[in-house]
Amino acid sequence: MTGSEHIVKAMDHELAHLDHVIAEMGGLAERQLEDAVEALVRGDFTLAKKVIAKDVEIDDLESEIAQFVVRFLARRQPMADDLRAIVAGLKIAANIERIGDYAKNIAKRTLVIEDPTQLQSARHAIARMAKVVQEMISGVLGAYIARDVAQAKDVLARDSEVDQLNTSLFRELLTYMMEDPRQISRCTHFLFMAKNLERMGDHATGIAEQVTFIVTGETPREERAKQDASSATVLDSSDSST
Fold first, then answer.
1. Whole-model pTM?
2. Domain extent for 106
């Protein structure tokens, strides 16, 4: 084996290691989201505290990836495809870290909500929304490992579904608050949880865009149409009586 062949083989091995760590980090973020929502639905404070405590593991993996990228750039001075993979890997890790933070935020709100098992329909709406986001995260991680642009585009397309669910839940929670002001504090926490999930979906699409960049050298140019109308939603008195 020539010296150049040895270097190429070593670089391939190191890039495969990066893929492995990103997949590990993404899998942990998926589990964090699943556990955070389960803690909410069941009113399980022990599980919620576990989610909060485990967030540091995602942070540690992001730090490991950042250090790896710095070392790789210094030693290997990659070009073309390898350089794109390294740059995108750093951005993907940052997206996953934010997903983990949002899962932790859901767990934190579960701990402070007075009786989180109330507002059953809202809790189940959160769970439905979380299921879509989990599928997006799983799909985009698969797209990353397979370098599958078509699968990444499927994830991008699902973002509007998350936005629509968020808008629907926003209207429902506003109605609860208008009908019973005693629910305002509890509903506010649910509103923030839904927003956390909507942002997770955005980060999943951010990863999908990086997958496209790795494979093609370009990021999707068309602006994603946001379907989240919660910021423009206003209820009048007739809405609360339906």
1. 0.88
2. 3-241
